[in-house]
Amino acid sequence: MATPALKAKELGNKAYKAKQFDTAIKHYDEAIALDPTDITFYNNKGAVNFEKGNYEAVIEVCLKAVDIGREEGSDYKHIAKALARVGKAYMKLDDLDKSMYYYDKAITEHRDPNILNERSQVLKMVKEKEKLAYINPEKSQEEKAKGNEKFKQGKYAEAIEFYNEAIKRNPADHVPYSNRAACYTKLMEFGLAMQDCDKCIELNPTFIKGYLRKAAVLKIDKPAEAKAVYEKALELDPNNAEARQGLQHCAQSLRNLKPEDRAKLAMNDPEIQQILQDPSMQVILEQMQKDPAAAQEHLKNAAVRDKFMKLVESGIVRVG
Questions:
Q1: Given a cut of 90, is residue 318 above it in pLDDT?
Q2: How far apart are CA 179 and CA 200, in angstroms?
Q3: Could you say which of 28, 192, 239, 252 has the lowest number of CB atoms within 10 Å?
Q4: Phi, psi at 245, each rounded to 5°
Q5: How confident is the model at residue 301 (pLDDT cuts 50, 70, 90)?
């Protein structure tokens, strides 16, 4: 048979589920008055105060719950729950250091998956806060300048360290990513260079050096992809000499390939894939293969002609 204290707790639970928070607190207070040794009454009251946004009250009642729990030898899971709720309240108050402190204490009591997940979220917030506090564009420029000097001296590994610091000081600046990519390219760390080029372009899609450095890496063994990047660079600056020379180099590299090798490379080109997957182009190509007269008729259409010439240049379609 339920005791008066447990009956009061049940009334509090019903009020809590109905979002009648003041009524719930009244019942939990009654339960505590009837039996001040039950940690769950304090924990439940803390949950209600959390829903009300009264985080200072959460901290007070849950710390009391911990004290009661230790005195009464309560289940460690209940003590962990109380400590975690204190941590959550401090998180809401933007006191992340205290939040982490109480979450750490909670998991020493019980490594509950939910508590571990909440702690991970707070840890992310701590790191993000530290990251934001570290941002200083002026310091970033200083570190970038030091990196530039090391690059000029051919000390690429040392330059990378300065560019790393420049990025930490101002992650929104695209230039250190571009400069670091140049270092990685010199050190033949092409995968890392590509990552930095992509980040640079993501931060500033109009910064031509990002494209030029990306194409310089790609042209080593992916001339078709490099050609597309050089073409993008020329959209930004039609007179850019490096992009023009790079485009010519890629075109020559592709011409020097055997037709079957050129076609194989082209199959990795997203534009080529799109053309080949276009149902209307599939029908047109089939007709052109069977009927030369139909080919002439289809090529009068500028859009079809452009796609067809793209396939010819790539070696996918052979004429003559």
A1: no
A2: 9
A3: 239
A4: -65, -40
A5: confident
Q: What is the DSSP letter of 188?
A: T
What are the C-alpha distances in Å from 24 to residues 5, 12, 17, 29, 43?
Answer: 13, 4, 9, 9, 12
- Is the CB of residue 315 less than 8 Å from the CB of residue 262? yes
How confident is the model at residue 266, as a pLDDT? 64
**Separation of alpha carbons 283 and 208, rounded Å:** 39
Give the pLDDT confidence score for residue 285 in this predicted structure: 79
Q: How far apart are CA 260 and CA 266, in angstroms?
A: 10
Q: Work out the pLDDT band at 274, boundaries 50, 70, 90.
A: confident
Q: Is 130 helix (H, G, I), strand (E, B) or coil?
A: helix
Residue 135: what are its φ and ψ, rounded to 5°? -65, 130
The torsion of the CA quartet 108, 113, 117, 123, rounded to 10 degrees, works out to 20
Residue 212's nearest CA partner among 195, 191, 192, 234 is: 234
How far apart are the C-alpha atoms of 26 and 34, rounded to whole Å?
Answer: 13
Which stretch of 173-182, 195-204, 288-297, 310-319 has the lowest confidence by average pLDDT? 310-319
Q: Spell out the long-range contacts of 203-211 with Cβ–Cβ below 8 A and sequence spacing 24 or more.
A: 203/172, 203/173, 203/174, 203/177, 204/174, 206/236, 207/174, 207/175, 207/178, 208/233, 208/236, 208/237, 208/240, 208/243, 209/178, 210/174, 210/177, 210/178, 210/181, 211/236, 211/243
Place of tokens 């293969």: 289
In residues, how long is the chain?
A: 320
**Predicted TM-score (pTM) of this structure:** 0.63
Q: How far is CA 154 from the centre of its chain?
A: 33
Q: State how far the Cα of 10 lies from the Cα of 129, in Å rounded to an integer.
A: 41
Residue type, 197: C
